[in-house]
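Give me structure tokens for this 347-residue protein.
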Amino acid sequence: MTTGHAVRTPPALWLKLAAAAVAWVGLYQLNEHLWTWLFADVFGLDLASPVGGAVHFFFYDVAKLSLLLTGLMFVIGILRASFDLTRARAYLEGKGLFVGLVLAVVLGVVTPFCSCSSIPLFMGFVAAGIPLSITLTFLLASPMVSEIAAIMIGDQFGWGIAVAYVLAGSLLAIVVGWVFSRFHLERWVEDMVFATRISNLRADGHVPTMAERVDASLAETREILGRIWKWILLGVGIGAVIHGWVPADFFATWAGPDNPLAVPLVTLAAVPLYVNGAGVVPIAEALWAKGMSLGTVMAFMLSSIALSIPEAILLRRVLKPPLLALFFGTVALGIMAIGFLFNVVFA
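Here you go.
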């Protein structure tokens, strides 16, 4: 056990961490430009074509997700090793469930990750002992309640609708968390989420040095990536095949205002589309212009942002099938309820 005075961190370690951070930022900024240059300029692919768009999307998104997952898991590991997260648990337990759910929504809003890249934070919270209902609330709120999407919705649909979007998405995340808090769901979380190197590092009150934190975070990051890299390729591969597949005429015809089943139809049909908040708003505007009612458009946007096949594939590595099905099913029902409500209020 480390006791007494703190161990001084060697300057060389700080330099290595700084160099790694600069390299990560550089690679992340270069990612899209690299694949665009390679496939469009070098190989001459038409990125607007189905094949060119799918190939570009696959390599870009695999690289983006790999960078995000690696960077986030490493940083979260350092933070978990650096702070006594039992205080965070005690704080949340003292404040009550509702405050914890609201804080999870606020954190989700200010961390505008896609549904897949929210997973490392989710794993870190679960491993730290944060209640599962609160972590699932964050997992839902982070992609669904996007400030970028809210601004674009305000510009295209009106600011009143943008506020309604934020409130509806936030309320849905809180309700889902509250519903899940009624059950003991921890048994449906994979054991690998709890048995992490970081958790063992702080066992018996040991205060790790920075070198120990870095080593443990690197080892845990490699271990988790080793478990999920195949699922990243599979999930993004499926997303790439259907990327850009948004049959606006189909939605306008079969999910028009005269179809009472329009909201369930678009909620389920939007799941495979795998788009983020910024990318779905222009599609939603086109559907609205074709006559789709606002609540149906809202259900389409929320479902395509919050639920995706790649997310389900990655989540399967940390959640067992019953909890995964319960999470997706509850969110889908909540999105349908929001769609029906919007159709009544904004008729």
